[in-house]
Amino acid sequence: MSVTTTMQVPAPSAVLELLKPITWFPPMWAFACGVVSSGLPLGPRWPVVVAGIVLCGPLLVATSQVVNDWFDRHVDAINEPHRPIPSGRIPGRWGLYLAILWTGMSLALASQLGAWVLGAAAVGLVLAWLYSAPPVRLKQNGWWGNAACAITYEGFAWFTGAAVMIGGLPDWRIVTLAVLYSVGAHGIMTLNDFKSIEGDIRTGVRSLPVQLGVDAAARLACIVMAVPQVIVIALLVGWGKPIQAAIVAALLVAQGGLAVRFLRAPIAKATWFSGLGVTLYVAGMMTSAVALASLGVPA
């Protein structure tokens, strides 16, 4: 008598949902900011730029999403049971297998784009695993977890875009703006925590809304988003770019108007503010990148 066992394989649609393509945009946009800020024409570099976009979005960020969903499957069973892993559409240990596979593919592509890109990608992947995986699990504390996400989603992606174009370490002004926008992104990450407060409390995740309370965390998110932009505006003025500084200032004022409504009802308006306010935030990023390009920063 023979027994045939069939290993259950996830459907491609479930895998794509697990990779969360909607989350790829912010780092791909930041990568594009890095490319633009270099001030160099695409020319023969366009295949490398395309590879960099694939690295930042469909590989690195997708890896972080799979890793997070695998180690967060018990929390998601409470907050969002319809997700691919808790719903069973990604069966067994396939979530872990996919996380390992995407990590390997990310490193393989990054290794073809230069030492600085490989280094940034490797650090980003380490942070992605440390963010979700025990025993470190940075996401257990909103201060550390949000910082890890912010620096990888914005700073490393921007740095990678510039490094791909330049073929080495970018100019200090490029790195400075990448760092500042990463700091502001910490506030953006806090906005994402408002939708999972109940599950975080029940599972011991100390997100900032849990630690500080809803109102204090909402105020902090707005301040953390705004202060780096004020510094960017001052830098642009100092670098002789008043028009771009004025554009970033106008975008910041518009964010402030949205923030007033958000602060009146943080839980109800967090997703709304994240959608509209972050759009204005990333528009300021590209405006700043264009300003750097017009400065002719040394490669």
TrEMBL record:
Coiled coil: none annotated. Its main location: membrane. GO terms for molecular function: chlorophyll synthetase activity. Pfam families: UbiA (PF01040). The chain crosses the membrane at residues 46-71, 115-131, 143-166, 172-191, 212-237, 243-263, 275-297. It is found in: Membrane. It is a multi-pass membrane protein. Keywords: Cell membrane, Chlorophyll biosynthesis, Membrane, Transferase, Transmembrane, Transmembrane helix. It comes from the Bacteria. Its EC number is 2.5.1.62. InterPro entries: Chl_synth, Prenyltransferase_related, UbiA_prenyltransferase, UbiA_sf. NCBIfam families: chlor_syn_BchG, PRK07566.1. This is Chlorophyll synthase ChlG. The gene is chlG.
